[in-house]
Every structure is written in C-alpha cells, then in structure tokens.
Amino acid sequence: MESFTQLSYREREKIYRGLCSGGGVRSIARDLGRPPSTVSREMRRNSDHIGYLYPGDAHKAAQERRYVNEEKIEKDVELKKYIIEKLHTCWSPGTIAGSWNIDHETTITKEAIYQWIYKEEGEALGLKKLLTRARKKRGTKRKPARSKIKNRVSVHTRPLSINERLELGHYECDLIFNSGSQSKNICTLVERVTRHAILIRNNNKISKTVVGAIIDFLKCSDLDVKSITFDNGSEFADHSLLKDELGIDTYFCDPGAPWQKGSIENLNGMLRRFFPFKASACEITNEQVALVNAKINDMPRKILSYKTPNEVLNELCRKKKKRKSRVKSAWPAAEAVCFNQKESSVAFGY
Questions:
Q1: Structural domain contains residue 140
Q2: Are residues 309 and 160 in the same domain?
Q3: Within this chain, do residues 114 and 186 fall inside the same structural domain, yes or no?
Q4: Which of 36, 44, 34, 46 has its CA nearest to residue 4?
Q5: Element at 173 (helix H, strand E)
Q6: CA 157 to CA 38: how far, in whole Å?
Q7: Which one of 90, 113, 130 terminates a domain?
Q8: If you average pLDDT over residues 80-94, what whole number do you get?
C-alpha cells in the first residue's frame, strides 16, 4: 500500500478550481488521483461559512494546524507519556488519539502522533517498530508505475451490481509476503458482499503459479465466482486464464490506488495478526493457512451486523435456492444492501 502524503498547494488549487466549475468530490478526487475521502476531509477542514478557502489560505491553515498538533506532544508531558505507554500495548495512533480526546480538553490527531513517531525523539525511542505497518519514512510516495498487463480491464468499467455489492460472487484479490522471502506468498481473496475469504499458499509469485492455484482451488469448490478485481502486480499477468477456463471476468485497479479494493486491504490487515511480517515465510504451512482461513470466516464482523462471513454466505445461498424465477437478475439486491447499509461509499467501501 502506498504511503500517505499531505495535500500540496497545487492540489488545493485544483480542488478550488474544480469546485468553482461545479465539480463534485468524486470527479475532483479522480483528477487528483486521490481517494474521495481525502478531498471531502480537506473541504471540511478548510472551509468557512462561505465555502472552501482560497488555495493559499487553505494551505496556510493546514500547515499551521499540523505544526500546532506536533508541538502539543513536545510540550505536554502527560500526553507524551500516554502515547508511549499505549504504543507499547499495541494501540494504533488512531486509537490513542480517539481515546485521549474523549477525556481531555487538549485534543490530538492521529497524523500528529505519526509525525512525532517518525521525528528525532520518536526514532530515538524506537517507537516506529511498535506500529503495525511501520515504514522507513512517513509521507513518501512513489510515482505509480504504468501497468504492462495485457487485456487489462479497468475497475471503472465494473457493472453497478458489483460496485454497489448487489450480487454474490464478486471477489478482490492480493498477495501477502513474509520475512525471508519475496517469492513465497499467501494469495488472499475476499467476496465483496459476505467478506468470505479464501487463502492459498504459493511457493512463488510467478503468474502462472498464482493464477493456476486460484483456478485449481475454484475447480474443487462449489463457489460461484463471477469476477475478481486485482491490483497491477505482474503476478496477475495471466488473469486471462480465469476467463478462458472458468468464465470469470477480471478487473484491475488504477496504479497506486489500493482503496479501490478496500475489502482485501482490510482482510490483509486482519491476517497480519496471524501471519506477522517477521514470521518466516518458510515456516508457514498449508495446514496453518487452512486453519487461519477457517477462523477468519467464523469471525463476526461489524459490517455484517456481527454475523460471520460463513453465516451470511450460507444465508444468502439458501435464499438463492428458494428463488424459482427464470429471469437471472442482479441477485440478491435487498439482502446484500442490508449487510452493507453503513457504507457511505458503496463503490469502493470496505
């Protein structure tokens, strides 16, 4: 996943011009190559009673707010002690900020905590190592590479029934790696409506191996998979085999846009509890992967009204069998929506 960077002056200028020309949040975000939530948050933070501030004023306000938050930690001994203590108990900066703000008048943001962790004092205390997904630097972003995958179909062409999670059988896919090998991997797939997961261990990331393992698994299962959405990794270059052998449609996210397959990114974060990066890839067995797969699918989820993925999948499959209509429609719309009613962005919601 790409690292987050603060909005630049030029980006704020584009937001201002986009709003002046009547553009919406999603169209502006698309032009910037940013998630819609970033643009929405920027507009909320840097607007007055008239509307979004002039670019220069908005940029100045953002910079001042950032520095003020960082200084709070340096000056507040109690806050600094609280952050260090909670980081050692595996709390995330977001959880620390939220918990602190409930009981204290002086508030703090998670981004301010991240910035402090990556500065000189945080580095000296080794706090970066306590983060779930520590990076060498905070705020660096690589320029996305242009995809070389043949017959690539953009995620923007997906039907409405997939984007709004109205139909079963549409998956997202990714790979996770562990220490000691950038070849051995676990292929992860998640169904967009039920959050039902599939985990497949691979000895290498050659495309024919990865895609072939998915095909072999699905041929032995009774799952009805209609489509899979990938990122632009070369390990998915042979995606056409899925269409040729199983009739599965494939879609690809924009380069550097992991939020477009947010469900699988969320699943991968959950899996790090069981397969932390420091765990040796050579010691992970097929049996371990199968056990974790079963456990994940029997874990209640808030997005599913605290039902498990297995329960939701079985329930919807039973309802499907009872339908006797000869017309095959985008099924089951009403049932799918009820499990995702809390999502504000249905197209790329988690």
A1: no
A2: yes
A3: no
A4: 34
A5: strand 170-178
A6: 23
A7: 130
A8: 89
Conformation bin of residue 195: beta by default, left when phi > 0, alpha when psi is -120 to 50: left
| Domain count within the chain | 2
SS3 251: strand
Rounded to whole angstroms, the Cα distance separating 187 from 109 reads: 34
pLDDT at res. 137: 59
Q: Where are the beta strands (DSSP E) in 179-242?
A: 181-191, 197-202, 227-230
Centroid of chain to Cα 309: 18
Q: What is the pLDDT of residues 302-327, one digit of tens each?
A: 999 999 999 999 999 888 877 644 44
pLDDT at 321: 78
- Interacting residues of 268 by C-beta distance below 8 A, sequence separation 6+: 174, 176, 188
In a domain, 138, yes or no: no
Q: Is the pTM of this model over 0.70?
A: no
Task: Convert the pLDDT of each residue in 6-35 to its tens digit.
Answer: 788 888 888 988 888 788 899 899 888 899
Distances (CA, A) of 330 to 105, 122, 136, 171, 285: 50, 51, 45, 15, 38
Residue 234 placed within a domain? yes
- Quick one: tokens of 187? 């292929």
CA distances from 303 to 39, 169, 192, 279, 341 (A): 24, 18, 11, 29, 8
My answer on whether 88 and 171 are in the same domain is: no
| 222 token code pair | 């009774």
Q: Which domain holds residue 97?
A: 9-130
Spatial CA neighbour of 229 closest among 268, 186, 264: 264
Kindly report whether the peptide bond that precedes residue 332 is cis, defined as omega within 30 degrees of 0.
yes
